[in-house]
Amino acid sequence: MDTSSLGKAFHVLEVLAAADGALPLATIASELGLHKPTVHRLLQELGQLGYVSRIDKGKYQITAKLRRLSSGKLDDSLVETADPFLRSLHDRTGETINLGVLRGTHVRYLRILESRHPFRRVVEQNSTDPFYSTALGRAVTSGLSEEDWSDLLRRTKLIVRTPLTVVDPAELTKIHQRAQKEGYAVEQDQNDVGITCIGAPLRAGQEVVAAISLSIPTARVTPDAMPELIDSVVQSARQISEQLSV
Questions:
Q1: Residue 104 and residue 19: Cα distance in Å, rounded?
Q2: What is the spatial distance between Cα 94 and Cα 137, in angstroms, rounded to a whole number?
Q3: 170 falls in which pLDDT band (50, 70, 90)?
Q4: What is the pLDDT of residues 40-81, one digit of tens each?
Q5: Mean of the pLDDT values across residues 172-176?
Q6: Is residue 135 a contact partner of residue 198, using CB atoms and an 8 Å limit?
Q7: Which residue in 158, 103, 94 sits closest to 126, CA to CA?
Q8: Could you read off the pLDDT of 135-168 as tens digits, one per residue?
Q9: Closest by CA position to 19, among listed 81, 102, 103, 83
Q10: Nearest-angstrom CA–CA distance, 137 and 127
Q11: DSSP of 138-155, one letter per residue?
Q12: How many CB atoms neighbour CB 81 within 10 A?
């Protein structure tokens, strides 16, 4: 498997790892923006290595062997390290706090502390959202190089989720560059109508490995409150990053 094929194979594994169950070939190919024969060849090679299995009706899933080698224990360690700081942020703000990682072209929620307010966004743990329409996703991708960012955009099916969702690649690149410069990302009404999110990256050394975000109904966001909320999220992300970098 050459270098180019190796990269594509990892992308296939990322998509399968982010799925709730087995996926058909066509879905994997569409998610990655690759031709079906190419994806089929990669799946066959990964199957021979014991990392992917084919089940009924031509669907594919990652194997227990790969799960043992991959993110499960790492994700558990990440949640354990971040949890005290997430709880502190949750107590200070009273809003929903999320911890997530990039899986394929989506962010997967590893930890969710729901707001005590009756009006809030409800997300299930281990569910996913597109990276481009969420502050969590924009934060976790802020560490990507220009080449990796362009590759991610190319592989992503950009779908409008609300009337305000940004799907223009050039505009998304500007948002990406702003998140890199400012160290946080803000998204308002682009993933869910009526919800504003603030996200910041988590680093282990220099590498962005995850992100946290705060979700709040847009109706509760005031000009005076926004800077304080941003500062709280950024400070919490820095504290977690310090622990991850030890």
A1: 9
A2: 22
A3: very high
A4: 999 989 988 878 888 877 899 888 667 656 555 667 788 999
A5: 98
A6: yes
A7: 103
A8: 999 999 999 888 889 988 988 999 999 999 999 9
A9: 103
A10: 13
A11: HHHTTT--HHHHHHHHHH
A12: 19
Alpha carbons within 13 A on the beta-carbon side of 147? 1
Rounded-to-integer distance, Cα 158 and Cα 27, Å: 15
* Matching residue, tokens 């190419």: 38
129 forms bridges with which residues in the sheet?
107
Residue carrying structure tokens 């998610």: 31
Strand partners, 214: 97, 198
The amino acid that residue 159 corresponds to is: I
Largest CA distance in the chain: 57
Partnered with residue 142 across adjacent β-strands are none
pTM: 0.74
Mean pLDDT of the 80-106 span: 94
d(Cα 112, Cα 97) in Å, to the nearest integer? 6
Q: What is the CA radius of gyration of the chain?
A: 18
- Cα 205 vs. chain centroid, distance in angstroms? 19
Q: Which two tokens stand for residue 210?
A: 């995850």
CA separation for the pair 199, 128 (Å, rounded) = 15
Torsion (CA) 175, 177, 181, 186 in degrees, nearest 10: 20
